[in-house]
């Protein structure tokens, strides 16, 4: 009888420990962004890429970062810099977006504009099979762009 109880208790305990382990591993750091947050820009670091192939490069199983926007932001810019070929996969209230590097953003994945209130999961992907250290910056300041006739414009 004691052996039968042992066979029912041990698997249940093992299953519960696996569930709690998965939950703790899946948690990404939370960054709260409010209007006029400081420091400006806010910069976080991590490792890009992962084992999961996606339309936005290789990504980790869990988000690299979760941001919570407390109030709608008329302007927020996310930029990722890395030695590799990084991508940004953003999953939030407005949908899921893949951001690749382009010449307009200086060869870095960057997205800017209006952001609605809510939680956003940020995956920093990688187009190669490797992983690289990255810096992800969040800025509420519009970027000043110099045009060819040397007048300034805001992007």
Strand order of the largest sheet: 1-5-10-7-8
Strand content: over 45%
Any idea what the CATH architecture is?
Answer: Sandwich
- Which series of helices and strands comes N to C? HEEEEEEEEEEEEE
Shape: globular
Count of domain modules: 1
Low-confidence stretches: 6-25
Structure report:
The chain has 155 residues and is of the alpha+beta class. The chain has a single domain (29-154), classed as Sandwich (Jelly Rolls). Helix content is 16%, strand content 46%. The protein has one helix and 13 strands; from the N terminus they run H-E-E-E-E-E-E-E-E-E-E-E-E-E. A five-stranded mixed sheet has the order 1-5-10-7-8, with no helix packed on it. A four-stranded antiparallel sheet has the order 2-11-6-9, with no helix packed on it. Strands 3-4 form a two-stranded antiparallel sheet. Strand 7 (86-92) and strand 8 form a beta hairpin. The longest helix has 25 residues, at 2-26.
Topology of helices and strands:
Layout: H1 2-26, E1 30-33, E2 42-47, E3 52-54, E4 57-59, E5 65-69, E6 73-82, E7 86-92, E8 95-99, E9 110-115, E10 118-126, E11 133-139, E12 144-146, E13 152-154
Parallel strand pairs: 1-5
Antiparallel strand pairs: 2-11, 3-4, 5-10, 6-9, 6-11, 7-8, 7-10, 12-13
């Amino acid at each position: 009888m004691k052996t039968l109880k042992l066979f029912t208790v041990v698997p249940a305990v093992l299953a519960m420990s696996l569930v709690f382990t998965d939950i703790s591993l899946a948690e990404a750091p939370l960054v709260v962004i409010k209007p006029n947050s400081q420091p400006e820009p806010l910069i976080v670091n991590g490792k890009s890429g992962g084992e999961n192939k996606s339309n936005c490069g290789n990504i980790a199983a869990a988000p690299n970062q979760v941001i919570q926007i407390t109030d709608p932001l008329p302007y927020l810019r996310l930029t990722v810099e890395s030695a590799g070929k990084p991508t940004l996969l953003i999953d939030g209230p407005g949908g899921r977006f893949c951001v690749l590097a382009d010449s307009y953003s200086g060869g870095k994945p960057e997205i800017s504009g209006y952001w609605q209130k809510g939680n956003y999961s940020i995956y920093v992907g990688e187009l190669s099979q490797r992983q690289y250290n990255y810096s992800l910056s969040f800025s509420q300041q519009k970027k000043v762009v110099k045009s060819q006739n040397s007048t300034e414009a805001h992007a």
